[in-house]
Amino acid sequence: MRLGLDVGSTTIKCVVLDDKNNLLYSTYERHYSHIVEKSAELLRRVAERFGPKAIFAVSGSAGMGMADSVKVPFVQEVFATRVAANRLAPGTDVIIELGGEDAKILFLTHGLEVRMNGSCAGGTGAFIDQMATLLKMGADEMDAAAQTAKKTYTIASRCGVFAKSDIQPLINQGAKPADIAKSIYQAVVNQTIAGLAQGRPIQGNVLYLGGPLTFSKCLRQSFDETLNITGTCPENSLLFVAMGAAFYAEQSIDLLKTAELLEKKGVSETYRSQPPLFKSKAEYDEFQARHAKAAVPQATFPAEYDRPVHIGIDSGSTTVKVVVIDEAANLLFTDYQPNQGDPISLLQAVLLRLYEQHPHLNVASVTTTGYGEDLAKAAFHADFGVVETVAHFTAAKHFLPEVDFIIDIGGQDMKCFKIENGAISDIFLNEACSSGCGSFLQTFAQALGYDVKEFTKLGLFADRPVDLGSRCTVFMNSSVKQAQKDGASVENISAGLSISVVKNAIYKVIRASSPEELGRHVVVQGGTFYNEAVLRAFEKEMGLEVIRPNIAGLMGAYGAALYGAQKSVKGKYSTLLTLEELQSFHRETESRACGQCGNNCQLTINTFSDGGRLISGNRCERPITGKKEQGEWNLYEYKRKLILGYKPGENRRGRIGLPLCLNFWELYPFWYTLFTKLGFQVVHSPMSSRKLYLEGQGSIPSDTACFPAKLAHGHIEFLSKLGVDAIFYPCMTYNLDEGLGDNHYNCPVVAYYPEVLAGNCPELRE
């Protein structure tokens, strides 16, 4: 018999074939990181059922190290897929395979060409799982819901955090879960086509492989609709790699001996480690005592309290924090809870509780900050709003007046401020990756079956923390699984992950060449620094002792309250809603497109019970003021009218298409006039739009080209369907010399993008 094992990042697949290559047995199971144990168990299961000898090979992203350690033949998974496709689906031109953490497109015609995801796992099975969790659905429920969708939204698929940033507002605005689910699948399709195919057309006989494409009918339909094809999801689509390994295997192996070797290997510790966080319990006790000193004094807050108080509200992306302080900046009250997509209702409940428990409450100021600063301020008539960087700086300065660096790590974002001469001189934010944030640790804790607080405590006294480096959250799964395979304990993995969070922060987000350049008087804040393992790892990496306030997660709200105390006028009351107004408070939310210009901004209109309202999502003030700019002063409107005013002339010598993209926006009047005078009929492509971009995305060869360049592909696609004799789009090294600079070169993209289009748009061959 032949045996093939496919050890993937999240699942393990096993097939047994007879001597005529008929499938006798197969299994597809999640290994939950127990790769060695699961593999040994499968080999024993097969040996008991079919006998101990088999022609055997291993494949898969997590199988190489394991195969090498027990001297079993390994077959590279792309090659295994090709072997299986040639045998089981001859005539296949393209294979699209989505796995747990990897995505591949295999072009089989005219030689093998492979496109794989590199530094990011956006658009894979793990990405879909994360988004399903956000919608509080299982993968099956999400697929079923998506099939009933009526509308598709634009959602980023490059990174799970960016996608979450697009999805959360849609949830808050009441978008239907079915429409969001369908949009997530479409985002995966766009990521695969634009990010992986990179200009090579996906056509002919297309095969869909891997878990996400096998289990999601909607995902397959989205690929079919976008590519204008009818792809095939073959029988045993989940087992192609395992079957390819079995077809290609040549060496006979004793399965029971191999299982025994695997189990022995599983208990040895062969991973790369780093020094422990604490050498002894005494060192830990000293560390705890030092950090206990950075505490805000607490004062009593009895029911009859009537002295002036200042309230700080930090409405964040995932949590809402409220702090009440007295005039001496002592803490009277704190509240910290997840916003559950509706921060206004939560804040209303907290403010009502304050009023009801303190009938003589004397509010001197209310200050809001965070993502929901404007919304909270408008809803409850707060006195001040403050940018969150200033709020965090105000709080940090209260603890350490000479502070020169602040780092704030939250659930999914990270902010770092450099302070010089008492003012913020530089700001660093995580942009395309969240692998250094709190949700990073939470994801792993849940995957290993622990509460995040319990999980991080395990790492404090780990003897050999795993050296995991700093990588994408999804890819880090593989490193953790490899470490588990090599015998790492949960304690050592926990410590290793905490150290990785810190390395990500310093070297990937801040991009520091050395810790010394960040500063020597450092305040750390944000909920993630409640984790003592992360705090200790940060101190060791920086080589200094830092200040971690006991209210690290509340620093935004505390800073807002301090800011309000500084700005308020003594003896003057806050404009905060009264108890009666809060009791009758309600708001209505409406989502609609503005429609007053071509941007069609998707507005969220919040209307409050007192008649006030807040409009967000607008890119100009027109929805708020109702005023429209006068056309004669609007250069963009002038250009648009001018270009649309040119009508195709008489066709005496042929029909020429001009793309309205890049430099042709400026030069269209000249080229139109020239060709019309020469007797050609001139037509142009339409105004750029999302739809136009999607139509041309299949021929975009580079993910790093600017968006205006990517749009050009849609313009060429459109013109090719108009029946023109030629499309005129020349390379132009120089622009018109206006005498205003040293030279008049065009940017390289504008100058030579026609060459890229000529080489990558298949429709131009006609």
Q: Give the total of beta strands.
A: 24
Query: What percent of residues adopt helix (DSSP H or I)?
Result: 40-55%
Sketch the major β-sheet. 5 strands, mixed
User: Which consecutive residue ranges, at least 5 long each, have pLDDT under 50?
Assistant: none
Question: How many DSSP H or I helices?
Answer: 28
Mean pLDDT, rounded to whole units?
86
CA(first)-CA(last) distance:
53 Å
Radius of gyration: 30 Å
Q: Give the amount of beta strand, in percent.
A: 15-25%
User: Shape from CA axes?
Assistant: globular
Q: SS-based structural class?
A: alpha/beta
Strand order of the largest sheet: 3-2-1-4-9
Summary, kept brief:
This protein is α/β, with parallel strands linked by helices and 766 residues long. It is built from 28 helices and 24 strands.
Defining key terms:
766 residues, alpha/beta, five-stranded mixed beta sheet, globular
Structure explained in plain terms:
The chain has 766 residues and is of the alpha/beta class. It contains 28 helices and 24 strands. The protein has a 5-stranded mixed beta sheet with strand order 3-2-1-4-9, sandwiched between helices. It has a 5-stranded mixed beta sheet with strand order 12-11-10-13-14, with helices on both faces. It has a 4-stranded mixed beta sheet with strand order 7-6-5-8. Helix 3 (77-88) packs across helix 10 (240-248), helix 13 packs across helix 14 (373-380) and helix 16 packs antiparallel against helix 19 (490-509). It starts with a strand and ends in a 6-residue tail after the last helix.
